[in-house]
């Protein structure tokens, strides 16, 4: 009789050991992993949607207009005569001219 009780106790102790790890993984997934995946997906979509003439900001903070764009290279016009070449991944974000307040 005591053998069955010991077997039932050992089964529940395994559940109490594994349960917190499963709970921690679920919390990490919803608080850390999933939001990071959403940000990465949104950034990749933004990089794919870039086109000639878009106003962008690089990771270093340089503002410019896209003059030429290929699969992995972007040429930005910073002022009337200066053109700089960047990797496409160095674009931080695009500035939508429709949402910028005109003063």
UniProtKB/TrEMBL annotation:
Subcellular location: Cell membrane
Main localisation: membrane
Single biological process term from Gene Ontology: protein transport
UniProt keywords, alphabetically: Cell membrane, Membrane, Protein transport, Translocation, Transmembrane, Transmembrane helix, Transport
SMART domains: YajC (SM01323)
One GO cellular component term: plasma membrane
Membrane spanning stretches: 12-33
Membrane topology summary: Single-pass membrane protein
Family: Belongs to the YajC family.
UniProt-recorded name of the protein: Preprotein translocase subunit YajC
Species, as recorded: Paenibacillus wynnii
Lineage, opening ranks: Bacteria, Bacillati, Bacillota, Bacilli, Bacillales
């Amino acid at each position: 009789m005591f053998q069955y009780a010991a077997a039932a106790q050992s089964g529940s102790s395994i559940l109490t050991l594994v349960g917190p790890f499963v709970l921690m993984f679920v919390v990490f997934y919803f608080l850390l992993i999933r939001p990071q995946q959403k940000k990465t997906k949104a950034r990749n979509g933004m990089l794919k949607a870039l086109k000639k003439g878009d106003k962008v900001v690089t990771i270093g903070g340089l503002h410019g207009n896209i003059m030429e764009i290929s699969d992995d290279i972007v040429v930005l016009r910073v002022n009337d005569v200066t053109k700089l070449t960047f990797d496409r991944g160095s674009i931080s974000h695009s500035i939508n001219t429709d949402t910028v307040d005109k003063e």
